[in-house]
Design brief:
351 residues, alpha/beta, Rossmann fold, Dihydrodipicolinate Reductase, domain 2, six-stranded mixed sheet, 12 strands, 40% helix, 22% strand, binds L-homoserine
Length: 351
């Protein structure tokens, strides 16, 4: 093990949308705690975002200043120091960076631009932490191999259930178990919309609110048509069950056809409508689906409301294990990034 106790981790952030901003806010607020509690030292060296602006300063950026700018001006173009001409690919290849945090918007068809960013960063010997679901759903085996070849880590806890442990829970906290079924609510936006519809809010208003709160994808069609949940089902199948499924293998139906009447009718009958994701392993085959279902109010998932998500893992040695917690949000997903970075720090700094 490499003993690198007092290393100053140099971080490059690719994408400064909801998750990037949540992560930088956490860094700003927790800097002292991270040092005292984990001996974690870092410098945020650069941010690259084609809309919000880019800035690079090898001395490290001021996280509070960045947050202030994004809140007041909507971009970081007037950050007072550093170079402003850095682009995302240059950043992924830069010798100055140890860890690339890739948080550009998810594209479930091509994985781009995240896929190229992640590949370039790994090829150039950087650890990668991401919450970008497209690249992991499309190319997990290849990316894992690339990380191994270049002796770096690729971590992506934030792709499923934001900062609520799901993948690391199985891979690390429950290492050694076999999982043959996974069932749950994995999309915050749709669960939030269905919850608000029960309070009589229209579908459109509830979606707007979910966007305002930073739950929805850049294109919220991905949420309401079930693509986001389907992508998470693929990640769960391939990472947790070592499957090889693609999004085309997921039977998918979103919530766009669910009406206020449907929601009320379910309630009158002691039920609730939830978008349920299910992944089942039978021998070598894996079946995955995402669809709205009426579940009884006494069902364990029935009281998972708002942007809260839940997953039940059916394991051999522990039986069912359920985790409930936030599934989306700026700070919530920023927390996933932090968890993964601290795991890298732990691995390389503890002897
Ligand atoms: N749009 C996603 C959701 C974000 O609503 O769950 C978290 O992956």
């Amino acid at each position: 093990m490499i003993n690198n106790k007092n290393k100053i981790w140099k971080i490059g952030l690719v994408g400064f949308g909801n998750v990037g901003q949540g992560f930088v806010r956490i860094l700003a607020l927790k800097k002292d705690t991270l040092l005292k509690r984990y001996n974690f030292r870092f410098k945020l060296i650069a941010i690259a975002d084609p809309i919000k602006g880019s800035v690079y300063d090898p001395e490290g950026l001021d996280e509070f200043r960045l947050i202030e700018l994004i809140e007041n001006k909507g971009n970081i173009k007037s950050y007072p120091k550093g170079r402003k001409d850095i682009d995302s690919l240059t950043l992924c290849r830069s010798n100055d960076i140890d860890i690339i945090v890739e948080v550009t918007p998810t594209n479930v068809e091509t994985g781009e631009p995240g896929l190229t960013h992640i590949k370039e960063a790994l090829k150039h010997g950087k650890h990668v932490v991401t919450s970008n679901k497209g690249p992991i759903a499309l190319a997990y085996p290849e990316l894992k191999e690339l990380a191994k070849k270049n002796r770096v880590m690729l971590r992506f806890e934030g792709t499923v259930l934001s900062g609520t442990p799901s993948l690391n829970l199985i891979l690390e906290a429950m290492a050694g178990v076999d999982v043959n079924k996974i069932e749950g609510i994995v999309n915050g936006t749709t669960n939030f919309i269905l919850t608000k519809m029960e309070e009589n809010m229209s579908y459109e208003d509830a979606l707007k609110e979910a966007q305002r709160l930073g739950y929805a994808e850049a294109d919220p069609t991905a949420d309401v048509e079930g693509w986001d949940a389907a992508v998470k089902a693929v990640i769960l199948a391939n990472v947790v069950m070592k499957g090889k499924i693609t999004i085309k293998d997921v039977i998918r139906k979103g919530i766009t056809k669910v009406t206020l009447n449907d929601v009320e009718d379910a309630l009158r009958n002691g039920q609730r409508i939830k978008l349920i994701a299910r992944v089942v392993k039978e021998g070598d085959s894996i079946k995955a689906s995402v669809k709205p279902e009426r579940i009884s109010l006494s069902h364990p998932l029935a009281n998972v409301m708002g942007a809260i998500n839940a997953l039940t893992f059916y394991t051999d040695n522990l039986g069912p294990v359920t985790i409930i917690g936030p599934g989306a949000g700026r700070i919530e997903t920023g927390q996933a990034i932090l968890t993964d970075i601290l795991a890298i720090h732990r691995y390389y700094s503890e002897s």
